[in-house]
Amino acid sequence: MHVRKILTWREETFEELGSRPDRPVVKAVGIAVIRNPFAGKPMAGDLTALFEAGAALGERLMPKLVELLNGPAVSYGKAALVGVAGEVEHGGACVHPRLGKPMRAAVGGGQAVIGSVVKVGHAGATLDIPLGHKDDPWSFPHFDAVTVSLADAPRPDEILVAMAIADAGRLRNRCGEAPAR
């Protein structure tokens, strides 16, 4: 796996339309931009190299993301943006088969499916990483997203792989109750 760049960031929300939580809601995002070994080539049947890349990126980035939170991770999501010389399946290979295991390990479990999105796009395209509660797929306050964009990625022969976690749900939720814990 050839990594061109890795970025991590922390977003803190202190207030939403007058609602102030007891502590800020923190979202942490990790992004890796990797070379796509299948870009511009005829359809490859075996995408194992990208399965392994997804797992390695999760092992590398997720512990750092957990450290950026103010409390335990309660929601998570993953996404990939494939450069235009690749295909959507290349991004799927990065996020679906093996990325979930290191994500769950880092957040201390996770019974719910990890929401994901994969698309093909140009450098600078936006990518919405879906967030959902790590244990309760029906926890409406945790249905959320983080939008990412990098001006120089993905290049046509790259894949931008992203993971996001949060330590709380949306502020001002009025769409359903939080899970009883």
Please provide the ordered H/E string of secondary-structure elements: EEHEHHEEEE
Average residue pLDDT:
94
SS field, number of helical segments: 3
Biggest pleated sheet: 7 strands, mixed
The value of Rg in angstroms is 16 Å
Textual characterization of the structure:
- The mean pLDDT is 94.
- The longest helix is centred in the N-terminal third of the chain and has 21 residues, at 48-68.
- The N and C termini lie far apart (40 Å).
- The protein has helices spanning 48-68, 88-95, 100-107; strands at 3-13, 25-35, 75-82, 115-120, 127-133, 144-148, 158-166.
- Helix 1 (48-68) crosses helix 2 (88-95).
- Strands 1, 2, 3, 4, 5, 6 and 7 form a 7-stranded mixed β-sheet that branches.
- It has 181 residues and is α+β, with helices and mostly antiparallel strands.
- Helices cover 20% and strands 31% of the residues.
Give a quick summary of the entry.
The chain is built from three helices and seven strands; from the N terminus they run E-E-H-E-H-H-E-E-E-E. It has 181 residues and is α+β, with helices and mostly antiparallel strands.
Summarize this structure as a short list of keywords or feature phrases.
alpha+beta, seven-stranded mixed beta sheet, 31% strand, single chain, 7 strands, 181 residues
Question: In terms of topology, how is this protein built?
Answer:
Elements lengths: L2 E11 L11 E11 L12 H21 L6 E8 L5 H8 L4 H8 L7 E6 L6 E7 L10 E5 L9 E9 L15
Parallel strand pairs: 3-4
Antiparallel strand pairs: 1-2, 2-7, 3-5, 3-7, 5-6
Helix pairs in contact: 1-2, 1-3
